[in-house]
Amino acid sequence: MTSRNHAAEATSAAGRLSVVARAERHPLHLVYPCDICAARAQSSCAPLDPAEQARLAAIMSRVKFEPGRSIFDEGAPAEGVYTVTAGAVKVFKLLADGRRQVTGFLFPGDFLGLTHDDRYAYGAEVMTATSLCRFPRRGLEALLAEMPALEHRLLDMASHELAAAQDQMLLLGRKSARERLASFLLMLSEGQARRGEERSPVSLPMSRADIADYLGLTSETVSRTFTQLKTQGLLQLPGEKEVSLVRPDALRSAAGA
Amino acid sequence: MTSRNHAAEATSAAGRLSVVARAERHPLHLVYPCDICAARAQSSCAPLDPAEQARLAAIMSRVKFEPGRSIFDEGAPAEGVYTVTAGAVKVFKLLADGRRQVTGFLFPGDFLGLTHDDRYAYGAEVMTATSLCRFPRRGLEALLAEMPALEHRLLDMASHELAAAQDQMLLLGRKSARERLASFLLMLSEGQARRGEERSPVSLPMSRADIADYLGLTSETVSRTFTQLKTQGLLQLPGEKEVSLVRPDALRSAAGA
DNA sequence: CGGTCCTTTGACACAGGTCAAGTAATGTGG
DNA sequence: CCACATTACTTGACCTGTGTCAAAGGACCG
Fold first, then answer.
1. Which bases of chain C are under 7 A from a protein CB atom?
2. pLDDT tens track for A106-155
């Protein structure tokens, strides 16, 4: 037992969910964001043909959540699959006593809710105001059976997540606090670059506690390690929710690999 | 830096590889082991039709490795995908200084080597004499494009691995040594049950150091924790490579979730 | 402007890592 | 079948990185 409880936080009310009927800016390319996915993966991401996109659009709905809201809880019936179009989401698993492991932070272009179990294996919560595309599981599975290109793309995405999960196991199992935080900041930085944003002022939509639960540490240790890296001149902290990477090279070597 | 190096062990010679031309007992059902996979997943694992199986068999070869041999190294060109038909395999990632994280132990029915990168993201090494089916990447990808059922099955398997990886993150990030070892033993036990073996004398083909590198501990701590669980009557150690679960219920509560 | 929450910092504790024997299991040559 | 070497596992003594507990800023908000 190496960490305090988040039980209170865990019992979050199921997020109030407002369905936005009409599509806004990105009609569908963010649903299966070929550009983002390809950039991330160097993958062979053939675009869906227009007819296929239309069938997807037919079953899709847009949803928005306010900061702090739950999208779904661990163990709830898995009725929807989502892609993030704006905002930031955390996904996490809980132990009975409230210890929490954040298994991922999601940004525009990422998807969540894929499981062929009929229950979600993790909870998902919004960190900032967030827009998502929602696909009902049943409908999506029916389309999958008929659209090999769609399934191919999902396999592609799942393979990536798997590789990322293995990197995270290495981090959690074998890296020091300093190495973990350095790795984390570089990961966020590269995520921003993939999405066409700047590499350096990295934005931190999540709390220190969220970072701690992602890195297998406590918020105190995260805080101390930020201070340490700042003192050593590897980064600056203009605000609590923002980091500039002053010496990315040094940060990379601090990341251990 | 919380663990000693395995650098010497890491520089394993590429395993000598003997190709067995003719199929032995399981022609193909272990390649895409519908029964095992379905049992593990409660998944909708439609069997491949005979024509599809024949095409798979045409590109498949059988390979065997002696204990301790490497199947492939992290970073090597990913030229093959494998399924285990007999024996036991470990897959792992390394840091520059030799720290190691075992990301999985594989048994008959499991597959490895799937990546749409052109390099393996992890190394794989055989723990006991092991037989595998090997599929050349190029050939398999060509078949994938034409056989949606095959792709569906791979997506299914990848989803499972992803769920398992998330469980492992929870273990590595938030569980105590005792909880980790208990979880590990139960996992092995359930793996045996899935493969139609007995639940209780759990066999441990891997060394204490391998277990440690899987659980994010040291071999000393693994050893001490085994002793502790034995002393408390939760299990017995008839030999170093075998554990009987005396009180699986108590072990489950010791596992923390 | 007082309250609440989050972050930072400090003092201290402890789980698990490190170092070092000691012991058992396995293999090898004679 | 037995010295002997080798390797893996266990156990003990001690140490350290990170967790725990506590308190003091700071930011935000009604």
1. 6-11, 15-20, 25-26
2. 999 999 998 878 999 999 999 999 999 999 999 999 999 889 989 898 99
CB B102 within 8 A of CB B150: no
* CA closest to B99 among chain A residues: A174
Residue B146 token pair = 């034409």
Please check whether residue B88 is in contact with residue B107, taking contact to mean a CB–CB distance below 8 angstroms.
Answer: yes
Q: Do B114 and A173 touch (CB under 8 A)?
A: no
Q: Over the stretch A168-181, which tens digit does the pLDDT of each residue have?
A: 999 999 999 999 99
Could you tell me the sign of the dihedral formed by the alpha carbons of B34, B39, B40, B44, in that order? positive
Nearest CA in chain B to A216: B173
Distance from CA of A17 to the nearest CA of B (A): 26
Q: Could you read off the pLDDT of B5-21 as tens digits, one per residue?
A: 444 343 333 333 333 32
Among all strands, which nt has the closest C1' to A207 (CA)? C6
Condensed to tens digits (0 to 9), the pLDDT of residues A211-246 reads 999 999 999 999 999 999 999 999 999 998 999 999
| Strand stretches in A73-213, DSSP E | 80-86, 89-94, 100-106, 111-112, 123-126, 130-136, 202-203
Q: In chain B, what residues touch A122 (CB-CB under 8 Å)?
A: 166
SS3 category, A136 = strand
Q: Looking at beta carbons, which residues of chain A come within 8 Å of B2?
A: 174, 176
Strand partners, A126: A89
Report the phi/psi class of residue B221: left, alpha or beta, with left for phi > 0 and alpha for psi in -120 to 50: alpha
Q: Is the pLDDT of residue B43 over 70?
A: no
Which among A116, A154, A163 has CB closest to B115?
Answer: A163
Please check whether residue A143 touches B, CB under 8 A: no
Q: What is the pLDDT of residue B216?
A: 98
Q: What percent of chain B has pLDDT over 90?
A: 68
